[in-house]
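hey so u asked for the seq, here:
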Amino acid sequence: MMKYLPLLTLLIAQPLMAQLPTGTELSIAPGIGSLFVNITEPGNHVWVLQSSPNLSNWTDIQTMKIHNGRYRRTFSTSGLPSGFFYQASINSAGQTLTSTTASALLIGASPPNYASPTLPPSFAQNPIPAQDNTPVGNPTTDTGAELGRVLFYDKRLSINQTISCSSCHQQAHGFSDPRPFSVGFAGGLTDRNSMGLAHARWYQRRSFFWDERAATLEIQVLQPIQNSVEMGMTLPALETRLNAEPYYTDLFNRVFGTPVVTSDRISRALAQFVRSIVSVQSKYDVGAASGFTNFTAEENQGRQIFNTPTQGNCAACHGTDNFVPGGGPANNNGIENPSVDRGIGAITGLTTDDGKFKVPSLRNIELTAPFMHDGRFNTLEQVVEFYNSGVAAHPNLSPPLRNPPGQGPPGSPRRLNLTVAQKAALVAFMKTLTDPNLATNPKCSDPFNYGD
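ran it, structure tokens below
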């Protein structure tokens, strides 16, 4: 019977030690008939797994190319060389092994349907077509969005190869971050909460970021890459890095007709993928097509409160089946006064814009906690209570949150005075906006081959 001793060794070729980014980790866990290898290594080197009966004579078992910073695999030990010891080390002589499209990515010969998703009939009715911010010069294509998906999950977009777009926009959380502030490449924190990306395609004001400083999605997707806290790269350095990667020259050739990687092409592909993140299989979508007969009494009560101007009036800022605002002025929701974060006001320099922020879609809101630009609320119940009783009297407060004429002090924050049951109904309705397929949809998931 093969016996495993508790001695596991990690040997790394000394000339490569200085090249290994911080965060390199290795674990080798032997079991009965198997061996589990788990490597985290942002440098994406070639490793070799070896076996030895005496710590002197080593036999190669497997060559392992790291793709996107991680490798994990369970090996069967039946048929492996007999021995008590295993080690994994950088293969200093084998670094010419590259990451090809076939080896690095788990994508098919034909990409999924990104360009023409099946949408509810209401999406063809005004005003939703006017909400679509897809530019004429960058329509979403199947190959373009698939390239964008690879870029979205690739940690090579950060300077130390430890952070990807998906690090702060996680699929399981509605493409947002469950932390109030996201962690950047060097451990620093962003100054705002990560916004969910589902239905980013539909926003009539067309601007992006909480403070709307990016006029288009194509501009927005490149800014976190260059941010000194988030990813820390420069666009020339990124172009050089990706042009040296065979799977990128292959994919860029498929999409653009030539293999050259440019920041403009990176921007276009990333924007195509983000616009392809569409979720229209929620309980709400089923209900909208059937008169909401699938809703519980509580959910229907919440829907009524949400849409009724004299009750919740939520639809004033979260309208249509996309639950986003129209093309009017930006909104101040009375989160505080004075504004700690000036929002759009810090961009325009106008005090009349202080405290105004982009209004995100409420689709999949159940998945995207914490809430608000600073992640101050952990639950939907807290959000509802804020709008029920906590809106601050900010001079820029949006009209739907002010008292209507003849009801209380003119212009002061409106109090909804909802009952406990009504507040619970409003939360129940918002949870019907969750698409259960979004968090696991394969065409939006990480495409890299990690060995397992």
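The chain has a mean pLDDT of 92. The CA atoms of residues 123 and 143 lie 24 Å apart.
lmk if thats what u needed
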